[in-house]
Amino acid sequence: MASKTKVQYVCTECGFESAKWYGKCPGCNAWNTMEEEVRSTTAAAKRVNSAVSSGIIAKPVGLHEIDSTEEQRYHTGLSELDRVLGGGLVKGSLVLISGDPGIGKSTILLQICQYMGNSLKILYVSGEESVKQIKLRASRLGVTSENLSLMAETDIQAILEQVRVMKPDILIIDSIQTMNHTDITSSPGSITQVRECTNAIMHTAKNLEIPALVVGHVNKDGAIAGPKVLEHIVDAVLYFEGDRHNSYRILRAVKNRYGSTNEIGVFDMTETGLQEIENPSIALLSGRPQYTAGTCVTCVMEGSRPILAEIQGLASTTGFGNPRRMSTGFDYNRMSLLLAVLEKRAGYYFSNLDAYINVVGGLRLDEPAVDLAVAMALVSSLKDVPISENCLVFGEIGLAGELRAVSHINARISEAIHLGFQKCIIPYHNLKQLTVSTPKIQVIGVRHVREAFEAATDA
Question: Does 283-456 carry CATH code 3.30.230.10?
Answer without folding.
Answer: yes
